[in-house]
Amino acid sequence: MEDKVKFELEFVIQSSPQLLFQYLATPSGLSEWFADNVNSRGEKFTFIWDGAEEVARMLKRKSDEFVRFAWEYNEDDSYFEMRIIVDEITKDVSLFITDFAEEDEVEEAKMLWDNQVSDLKQILGST
Question: Domain named START-like: which ranges (predicted)?
Fold first, then answer.
């Protein structure tokens, strides 16, 4: 198996960290922008896209700061993390994404995140 490459993306989001966190850490929030539907039982989250299910485990979370998930099928230590960063001076809120992909799929994965976060921004009324 090829080693996955870690990549990071940053998006400025016009939202409070508290509101944004609800869209990152709850099944109802994630269902609005990340997947067609999301169910959870404890730390186990089931993401549904076009009828296909993918299961991820929430590894870590800190209210209004970040969530980290790992797909159940992973055979490595990869994960995806959504972190909320607030600039101390400007108070601008950014969503910082950390994810892993096969080397030849990194650009595609970045485009997917761009599209997903674009949907999130629309829901939040952030331009």
Answer: 1-125
Work out how many domains the chain is built from and give that number: 1
At 76-124, the pLDDT tens digits run: 889 999 999 999 999 999 999 999 999 999 999 999 999 999 999 999 9
pLDDT tens-place string over residues 51-62? 899 999 999 999
CATH of the domain at 15: 3.30.530.20
**Cβ distance 43 to 56 under 8 Å?**
no
Answer positive or negative: Cα dihedral of 18, 47, 109, 5. Answer: positive
Could you list the residue range(s) of the whole structural domain that residue 97 is in? 4-124
Residue recorded with tokens 């989001």:
13
* C-beta separation of 41 from 57 below 8 A: no
| CA 87 – CA 105 distance, rounded (Å) | 31
